[in-house]
Amino acid sequence: MSTRTYTPVDAGGAANAPWRPTPSPARHHAGFWFIAFAFLTSMAFCAVPAPLYSLYQARDGFSTFMITVIFAVYALGVMISLILAGHISDWAGRKKILVLSLGLEVAAAVMFLAEPILPVLLLARFISGLGMGMLTATATAHLHDLHRRHRPGASNQRFEIVSTVTNIGGLGVGPLVAGVLAQYVDAPLRTPYIVFTVLLILSIVAVALAPETVEKQVARPAYRPQLPSANHGDPNRYIAALAAGFASFAVFGVFTSVAPAFVGGVLNQPSRAIAGLVVFAVFGSAAVAQILTSRIPATAKLALGLSAQAIGLLALTVGMHLANLPVFLIAGSVTGIGAGVLFKSAVGAVASQAAPAKRGEALAGLFLISYLGLSLPALGLGVVTQYVSSVTAMTWLVGFLLALLAGVAGLSRTRTTT
């Protein structure tokens, strides 16, 4: 139930920020966790196919390259959605966009259940990407709004931890659940989607129960697509965050596309549960690292993310050449720690410096560049494996990512010394 008092969008926000009725703090507190649940569920669902790709591959006979195409189609849907709709919750309302995006995820889940052949798989992944593009920036902005309304004047630590853990942690939970279900229950290509269809419907209910944080505007601004822009606080700091997002998501893209097939082929581990465990180790380590680093300074967080990811990638190369699953698993965990901390640093930097009325837009730009990192390296890996071995292709990719991390470090030094 809303009170009749009015508060600005954000403490310390712009003078022309819209004013709106504020529900009770208890509703903001409950709403924060409702949105976190919906965010976690949707992120988990989008990664469900990761340990199942080899089953589709064995059934339909398509190549490793086609796996990366399927993954790239999902990322394409995300990017199109981010450009067209990732920012409109700033004026259309957070809940409306979240319900629409979750509805698209439910539609994708139903398509997986109806006829999981390759054309339908491609279409379902594209629709899932469209929903996810709207959801990532909107849910992150909604969590920030609810956190600030419930705890005005408090630090952003809770928001940063929950938003990044639900995002990154969800990407690990989905493959783990799907891998275990595919290994130990009947209908491995159907049961995971039945489970997540129910969870997605519950997520829609959770969003409906959460309070809105954007007032309905009498005159809506002229619509325009969301294109990357550095006009969100300090331009150098924002660009550094975009580069960090690309670097961290490049790792996540590899582990949610071709890494499970790599484990089953090169490492001779055909178990779907093990494939899901490998993906979970990367994202689970990322989520834990994000929690444990919540109190360290931003510069130390960035340095830790860069160094851990670089060390993990080097160890990953060793594990691939030795065809050693324990080394590969440990290296993936260390790489996940680095990527998770790096992405957490990027989200915190963007959310803290963006104007309240443009926070969704700024975050949409971050996720757009990050999802380019999610798709392009993985797609490139799929192309290269048509001509060289998987181990050689992964080694080349590690070299590219190490060079990219060096570039992020150089850009960060430029930012801190100017």
From TrEMBL:
Region (Disordered): 1-20
Compartments it resides in: Cell membrane
Membrane topology: Multi-pass membrane protein
Coiled-coil regions, chain positions: none
Membrane-traversing stretches: 30-53, 65-85, 97-114, 120-143, 164-185, 191-210, 238-267, 273-292, 304-322, 328-351, 363-387, 393-412
Protein name as it appears in the record: MFS transporter
Principal subcellular localization: membrane
Domain Major facilitator superfamily (MFS) profile: start-end pairs: 30-415
